[in-house]
Structures are given as structure tokens and as C-alpha cells.
Please model this.
Amino acid sequence: MVGRKIGLERVNSGSEQLQILGIIFRSDLSWTDHVNYTVKKAWKALHFIICILKKGNSGTKSLACKTLVHLILEFGAVCWDLYREGQIHMLDRVQKKVAKFAYHMSRSNWETLSQRRKISRIYALFKAYSGERAWKAIGDGLQRSNYLSRIDHEQKIRNRRQRMDNGKYSFVYRTIQFWNQLPAEILRTLPRKPSAFRKRVRRVINVVN
Model:
């Protein structure tokens, strides 16, 4: 596999972990180690910004936070998107602190981390669905649904049954559910450029949320 690898290491639970391109994978498919690593790294970046830009204006603070902290929180989020509330809360705490520092309030007009992660997942699935080379392995496994109801769109993807949590909360399974729930006008004519599709999805998700 491409990327920097750290040899398999034993963790407290007895499972093994491997770091590839900055993402920590565990043999039991738990994201606990990677979440802890990401949160720790994001706090360090935020504290650095606070020390440097303590007297800066909101625009400068916002730009610095989006450039440094947000990139850490969202790096590779398509692969390790979360479903456990405790882990989501850890990331949201950093997000709220960032907003408070930049705008002196716990909330801002920024998209939430959950919204941005959902947009990234659907955007990645679109690349697989449209046959982009890097996503071809996933795209080859996608199948058209055999049944369409009145509210379904023609681009509906067949969703396979999953019995274990590792399957139910995987990137492909969760994103197919979101994909099938998108309004028909979003998928009626698929754009050639993935960036155009991402803008469509962002508008829909931001309105719903």
C-alpha cells in the first residue's frame, strides 16, 4: 500500500493498529485511537493559533482556524466517519472552541462537522458511481436497485443487508442510504464535474439541517 506505514503495534485491547497516510486503522475496525490522535493534534493547532492571533480580528482568526484546525478534523473523514456519540462529541468540542475563539460565540455560520462529513461521503460515492479511476473498486460493487417507488430517483443504488455493526456503519452502506434519500432533481442529470455535484449536495444538506 502507498504511504508511510508504522509497523503493526499492539494496543491495550489486544488488537493491532497500522497508520497509513495519517489515518490509524485498528484490526477491530475501531476508530478510538485515530479520534484521540486527531483531537489531540487539533487542540495543539488551535492553541498555537490562539497564542499567535490572540489580538487578531475575526476574519484572520476564522481563516487560520479553517486552514489549520478544520483540515486536521476532516482529513480522510470519508474513511473514518463516526457513528459513536462520544467520539462525535470530542470532535464537536474542538469545533465549538474554534467558533468561540473566532467569533466569541459557541456557534457560527459555519457548516457543522457532521454536515461537512456527510457532504464528503456523498461526494466520494458520486466519484465511485461515475466510474472515476481512483474509486473504481468501490464503483464496480455498486448495483442499480431492482425496485423503485414513487419517491425514488432513477439513480437509486441497491443496498445490501448488513448484520454486523462494522457493515452497518461502513462508509459505503451509510452513504448509499443518504444517496437514495437525495431529491430526484439532484440526480436527474449528473454533472460531469464532481465539484458541481458537490455544490448541489451542499445546498440540499444545509437546507435540511
Q: What stands out?
A: The first strand starts at residue 5 and ends at 10. The chain has two domains: 32-109, 114-208. Strands lie at 5-10, 16-20, 23-26. Residues 114 and 188 are 26 Å apart (CA to CA).
